Amino acid sequence: MDRQAVANADYPSAAGVDKTITRNGFRIITRKLPILKAEPIEQMTSKLSITPPEMIFGDNMALIEHPESGWKIEFNAFDALDLVDKTGSSMLQVAHSKEWQSTREKKHEGITEVVKPFDWSYSTEYKGTLHGHGTSFEPSTDPIPLELLKRHDPILFFDELTLYEDEMADNGITLLSCKIRVMPARLLLLCRFFMRLDGVMIRIRDTRIYVEFATGEVIREYLAKEERYESVRQKLAMKGQDVPAQLRDPNNLVDLLPVVDKTVERLQLK
């Protein structure tokens, strides 16, 4: 996307807030800026043809690049939102909650030049934005080597950032965030979409990027899980846990949801 088109002049320049580290030919950059204001939100709305979420961090991003090959993968809010269903064909949540849909429609009353209906949960299958020609992921059966990530290696670089968030008219939450940690020999990035529509559904879609610096191997794993809200609530209640508190944290829920989609891909940069 063209960030200059949605830049907010009232905020610090990106150059002053980027965090970066370089390891074995790979450069990692993260950026965290405040929530977008009215003008860039209007520009984003026009480009996306949907109303953005309540809280949109349009200047935030996480980037992994390999300058020698020209390969990059970036995670940003605009490209993630551009994958939200804009036809309404994926609005399973709305079909189960007419009251929520009505509340949501009224909340955005007065917004013009917006294509309706669309998926108000902002569910996305975003796996990152790829840059660079001639180097692409290929299907793989080799998963991310978790045993290497469980080692007590020092953390050289860590950051986490929010790309967008919406409280779904006080009926739940939808949140897209990124977290990255860099160790001496490898890195792991997690981009997580979390949606909880109270009384209806809980959905988690994780994209993980794993890089082994010495070999230049990059693995991308996408894992989608979802379950009926009531089923998850009952599982938590049976454990005697504080259900409302547990439902607010996707880390407490991810192991309770069945897998509905999984893909593993890899590429070699060295």
Overview of this structure, please?
The N terminus is likely disordered. With 270 residues, the protein is an alpha+beta fold. An eight-stranded antiparallel sheet has the order 3-8-9-10-11-12-13-7. A five-stranded antiparallel sheet has the order 1-2-4-5-6. It is built from eight helices and 13 strands.
Major sheet: order of its strands?
3-8-9-10-11-12-13-7
Helix tally equals 8
As a percent range, the share of helical residues equals: 10-25%
Q: Assign an overall shape.
A: globular
Estimated share of beta-strand residues:
35-45%
Poorly predicted residue ranges: 1-13, 92-97, 106-116
- Which H/E pattern describes the elements? EEHEEEHHHEEHEEEEEHHHE
Strand element count = 13
Helix-strand category = alpha+beta
Summarize the model shown.
With 270 residues, the protein is α+β, with helices and mostly antiparallel strands. 19% of the residues lie in helices and 36% in strands.
